[in-house]
Amino acid sequence: MRCAQQRLGAAVARALKIERYSVEQVLGMLIERCERLGLYVHGNRRDARRYSRWMLERLAGLYSQGETPHLPL
Prior knowledge:
mainly alpha, 3 helices
């Protein structure tokens, strides 16, 4: 996620029509959580980017609505 951070954040902010800063904060939390759990991409990077974008859209959308999501990674 770290290598696609800029592109991913901009795409999600445009798709959800929310501030890019908010999306980048959520993305930062995701990256930190993945590092703590030792999660890394094994396999197809295209699929990993697609699933990462889906997860980021879901989490950023929930945060923008004032909810605190509890999604396991």
